[in-house]
Specification:
Blueprint lengths: L25 H6 L15 E2 L2 E3 L9 E4 L3 E8 L4 E8 L1 H4 L2 H15 L9 E6 L4 E6 L4 E2 H8 L4 H20 L2 E2 L8 E5 L5 E5 L6 E2 L3 H7 L15 H4 L6 H16 L1
Antiparallel strand pairs: 1-2, 2-4, 3-4, 4-5, 5-7, 6-7, 8-10, 9-12, 10-11
Helix pairs in contact: 5-8
């Protein structure tokens, strides 16, 4: 006799898969690292609206990157059932209204940009306890990782990467957006099904618009050292002077040198 299967009601409310009524959804328990409450052992929140941060087997969050404004994690969108990159403002900055506004402005600016060589911003969420945005998750190797693994790149490959980044910066410049942190670790390399190399510029969340006075004030902000990375920052960034697309071009040039040296 063919064993009976669970009815339509016996499905996981998050992933939609059939579940064992006794043990719950094995997929979500394994893939999402689900825990009993909304905080991991480290005290990091694991739930942001309809997003749940992916956790490792020990309960620690799956961190992708960390910067002056916030931390980026791998997360699962429970509505669309797909993985995303979720950036959360640092807890120490959450109570600072000016820094919250800066974080929100950065996300809104990045959301304006749609380009095949840019990781898109998907959602912005804010409340008294949380301030975050989600981005397209790029799972590949960064230029930094590639150079560390393989050494200096062939000039043809390096120029192919620079060309794609330049295309993204051109699209940003048309919207009067400046990235301010072009560097090898913010350039992700992925392969299409046809094997074509595609560069994705990530962390456009720290971009500023040159059109709004508020953004000019943020561009000139002297209250943090969060903008730019020392080895790749332009002279005007290091002097905390106003920036434009030429700053990104300078940083791209430094990145080219990094790839070839």
């Amino acid at each position: 006799m063919t064993p009976t299967t669970g009815n339509a009601a016996e499905r996981c409310p998050e992933c939609g898969r059939p579940i064992d009524p006794t043990n719950g959804c094995t997929h979500c328990l394994l893939q999402l690292g689900k825990i009993a409450n909304d905080f991991g052992p480290s005290g990091t929140a694991t739930v942001y609206d309809h997003y749940r941060i992916v956790t490792h087997s020990d309960g620690s969050p799956a961190e992708i990157g960390r910067g002056g404004m916030g931390v980026t994690y791998k997360a699962f969108d429970k509505n669309l059932r797909c993985y995303v990159a979720l950036k959360v403002i640092h807890q120490r900055l959450l109570a600072d209204s000016s820094m919250r506004e800066r974080f929100l402005q950065e996300a809104r600016h990045a959301a304006q940009l749609r380009h095949p060589n840019v990781a898109s911003v998907l959602h912005l969420g804010t409340s008294a306890e949380q301030c975050f945005y989600t981005m397209e998750l790029i799972e590949g190797e960064s230029v930094e990782q590639l150079v560390q693994r393989a050494g200096p790149l062939e000039p043809v490959l390096a120029l192919r990467i620079v060309s794609q980044v330049a295309s993204a910066l051109t699209a940003a410049a048309k919207l009067r957006l400046v990235h301010r942190d072009i560097k090898p670790s913010n350039l992700m390399l992925v392969r299409t099904e046809a094997g074509e190399l595609v560069v994705k510029v990530i962390d456009f969340g720290i971009a500023v618009s040159l059109d709004k006075q508020m953004d000019k004030e943020l561009a000139n902000s002297r209250d943090t050292g969060a903008v730019g990375t020392l080895q790749f920052a332009s002279p005007e960034q290091l002097r905390q002077q106003p920036v434009d697309v030429r700053s990104d071009i300078y940083s791209l040039g430094m990145t080219l040198w990094y790839m070839l040296a």
